[in-house]
């Protein structure tokens, strides 16, 4: 269970202080696919960077299974970060590495032995349906296939939480559908929690259990997808 309490992030710039997130409160259940939707500049990326422990909050806390992420020492922070997978709009693959070596990259960083990381990477490449592409380079793949690699890589360290930042925004409708189906399958099979940030209504409707609408750093509406979208 993730509990976000009074989370606040201010950026200090030459033009003054920007309040990107303002005393935001949110609880997300284990195994849930939770959607966060809102216009550009609403604070979605800032929120996800704090969840991913890439950015410190100005105030407030993020508790994951009773552990306050904002209190962790740097060693524990690194371990906690490994348990959070992230997928990106532009995939962020390493172009000089094959699919296999992209997927095993986080395991290399974690110091896993070569034989083990190849075994694990192959399992994940199978899971995302790219078994025949393991030795290809990213440039040889379609957008949807690249995102499959991104998903496999995000799962390398067996995360409890998968964060998706506009992961289908660069894809055509057909690839979007197949990536969303894959995320739903992964949630079922691996039983992890997925937080999905998007500006696409269709994505939310398709796979999210619950959704929060964010504007100017605040949640302005929250509920089950049916509740939010069925209103007249
Ligand atoms: P979204 O992802 O919803 O488009 P962001 O989280 O990127 O929103 O941005 C929220 C607000 O914070 C915007 O006003 C943006 O300009 C500002 N902002 C985001 N990142 C920074 C930064 N590193 N420095 C200064 N301002 C930032
Ligand atoms: P070195 O750094 O000792 O030169 P590498 O570890 O980079 O060697 O690679 C040696 C060989 O093993 C290369 O052919 C490379 O493609 C392969 N290899 C290395 N790491 C991986 C990995 N994680 N997954 C698959 N193949 C790997």
Automatic annotation (TrEMBL):
<keyword id="KW-0547">Nucleotide-binding</keyword>
<comment type="similarity">
    <text>Belongs to the ABC transporter superfamily.</text>
</comment>
<feature type="domain" description="ABC transporter">
    <location>
        <begin position="2"/>
        <end position="232"/>
    </location>
</feature>
<dbReference type="GO" id="GO:0005524">
    <property type="term" value="F:ATP binding"/>
</dbReference>
<keyword id="KW-0029">Amino-acid transport</keyword>
<dbReference type="GO" id="GO:0006865">
    <property type="term" value="P:amino acid transport"/>
</dbReference>
<keyword id="KW-0472">Membrane</keyword>
<keyword id="KW-0813">Transport</keyword>
<dbReference type="GO" id="GO:0016887">
    <property type="term" value="F:ATP hydrolysis activity"/>
</dbReference>
<dbReference type="GO" id="GO:0005886">
    <property type="term" value="C:plasma membrane"/>
</dbReference>
<protein>
    <submittedName>
        <fullName>ABC transporter related protein</fullName>
    </submittedName>
</protein>
<keyword id="KW-0067">ATP-binding</keyword>
<keyword id="KW-1003">Cell membrane</keyword>
<keyword id="KW-1278">Translocase</keyword>
